[in-house]
Design goal:
- There is one protein chain.
- With 831 residues, this protein is of the alpha/beta class.
- Helices cover 44% and strands 15% of the residues.
- A 7-stranded parallel β-sheet has the order 7-10-6-11-12-5-13, covered by helices on one side.
- α9 runs antiparallel to α16, α10 packs antiparallel against α11 and α11 packs across α12.
Amino acid sequence: MKTILVPANLHLPMYQKLLKENQNQIDVQIISLNSFIYDLKEKQYQILYQYQLRKDIISKSNTYYESMNDLTFLKSCLSFIRWCKLYDIHKFPKDTKKEQDLNEIIQVLYPIDTKENHIKKIEDISSIQILRKPYSDMEMIWIQYLLEHGASYYDTSINQHFEYHTCANSRKEAELICLEILEHDLYANDCFVCTNNESQNQVLAQMMDQYHIPYTFLNTSIYSSIVQDFYMIFDWILNPSLTTFLSMIQLVFPAIYNDMNLYYTNFPENFKNEFHMKDLDYEFNNIIDEYDFNRLKKAEQRIIEWNEEHQEVYDWTIYDFTSICQCIQDRHPFYQQEDVNIYKAIQEVYRQSLPYLNQPSLFLQFIETMEVQQTSSEIKGVLIGSLKDCNAIRSHVFIMGAHTKNFPGIQIHTNLFDEDYIRHTALPSLQERLAFQLDEMKNTLFSIENLYISYAQSDYEGKNYEPSPEIEDWFHKKAEFVNLKESSVNEKMKMEIHPQQANQLFFKNTRFSVSRLESFARCPFSHYLKYGLNLRVPTLDIAMKGTILHSILETLTKKYQKEYVHVDEKEIEMVISHEFDFYRKVYPNQSRWIHEQILEYKEKVILILKQLSYFEEKWHMNIKDEEYHIQKEIEFEDMKLTFTGYIDRIDSSNTSFCIFDYKSSKKELKQDNFQAGLSLQLLTYTIYIEEQEHLHPTGCFYVSLSSPCITDSALKVSYPRSKPGIVEESKLNCFNEFTNQKFINGWAFDGFDNYMDDNSLVGIRKNTPSFSECKEQWNTVINGLLTDMKKGNIQSQISDQSACSLCSFRRVCRNNRQIVAQVSYIDQEEE
């Protein structure tokens, strides 16, 4: 009986070819080279464990002593020792320290039994045929031995047709292959495509799906979360910590992960300890939002319930393999054959590792680096494989990505046992090996009946690829460029919703905050996500700090009125400490952080009060109200809308009033921003108070609570004509510059000068409109914003390119934003 040596993954296409040629009758044995040569089914994992156990024999001064626990290192040693055993090599270089250390390790590991110690007795070699394909260094010795003793190559044809093309990129190259198959009316079952990497496989598969060409991958890497499930569980068992626990929960128990991640991120000390929030009720404060508090409390309750049902997760050991498998099976109730193969592979790893689990570091590395290859059990359509599988079984062969970097894909040894090291051994020289590999590739190509080779001129980033000189030399032909054109039309998605839907989303609740209208003017898309779809926006740290400072000032002004700027430090510290009362209950472990925050806020408040003291001395209105709640009603089309908000501070006299709004950063009231709908808050408050209290408005201002940076120069060098000298800067000058910052900015109306002695302390923009003009413009701007909102335009449209940097929805928006000139509703009305 004739025997044909064919790699295991090519058995099916080989049988397919023989059955077709011999009318479904064959008397041939097809076997892989590995099965033909060796009579031992090797247990590779056990060999690597035995290698690791030999670490105790190696001297601790050896450079690679600690590497004996590393799987990659041990695999490199095993691969090199296999190669040496084939050539019966026992002597290794010892000139350098590296070579001496490697020699010690090889001599210790060499005696351990491998399949190379169990070679079959080969008798009738003349009946052996070898499928011509590119073979590796390890296979080189056997290919040459068999050919020298009577074996021959299995060749059925010689090259009759050759095409050589180049395209712009890999996607075009894949499209060209599909067009070649369709335009030449090639039978899919006669086609084989050789690629160079996984990315090319995916591009080719997508293109064949697009052109409805059936295909089968010769080898498929199984990517399954089951492997990760096992790894995360065993990582948690062997390295118990909060980090490994949360990683395991995220993958294996995703339903509870969000709760655990939220809770243990805030309270890592509670992991495996008592829970503390179940007896707490929410108390109003300016640090912890009620929504966030309830989330934490509910998360704690769900974790407690989950722990009662899954106590075994905390008690697992590495020997509870059955329980772990059952847990993972419950997570994957609907399985496929690939999942079964994964389970079998992991079970085999565990079975071979079981005697060595008292030192489980290698076992975890086995699971982490596991790659399960699956050979197709059924072949239909175009066969897709790698360049090392290139052969003449099918009559039409396409080689994809054949540029200099990938073709002919010769094997050169690097890393630990590199070519420099091999050069000092009795192994075949680099020249011999390269000549063998090139001959195998060349002869394989010339044995293919119809050969199509192509390469991309550049990658997707624009890096150029050069043509392979071997192809041009062997076939005496240069690549022909094929230009596959496609549509150049690229339309951006238009963001809009139907006016009826806009009405249901935006006007379902007729109560509007002023900041909501400003949000729409700033970016309609952000407004749609926040107020239309009600997506929650995380609170920024700077906003929380502003709220706390605001609350401290409110507390002091309520108690001391205008004398609040002269409160002593102990009183300030007590007020600040009170702000953190509820935070202490929720975060009992944060006492040190709270103390640092109190000191930090104390310094900030002292500086703010020093600034405000200059203003209060020159300002002659009394504090009338704080946190004043407004509800301003307006009519819009057929609806009655109510604008709501809180005025931070209202100062008044018998006839007049002034509005102040605290801000955590420096902010100015600009006319352009007001007319574009970006600064409506102060004017809305002012108009409301004027209508309700019948007092005369003298101004509306932002009060910045931020602490500006002032340059503090230690010294100045003076260069007089006679003698140079050093002049010390006065600290008082620096402090005066700080306190004289115009941290109060806004608009002043008629009568403001009657209550302010020194206007230099306040930033007032020139040519500001009168209050009557503001009221008229305010109505125009409000109606314009509401009209645009009702139309349903939700396009991401901004006038400031930096506006997206702090937006919580920038990842959702992606590339749909449009930079436009700032809109003025006043100008639109005039037009």
